[in-house]
Amino acid sequence: MSTHTKSESGKAKADTQLTEEQRQHHIEVAAYYIAESGGFNSGCDLENWLAAEAEIDRLLAEGKL
Question: pLDDT (tens digit, 9 = 90+) per residue, 4-19?
Answer without folding.
Answer: 444 444 444 445 689 9
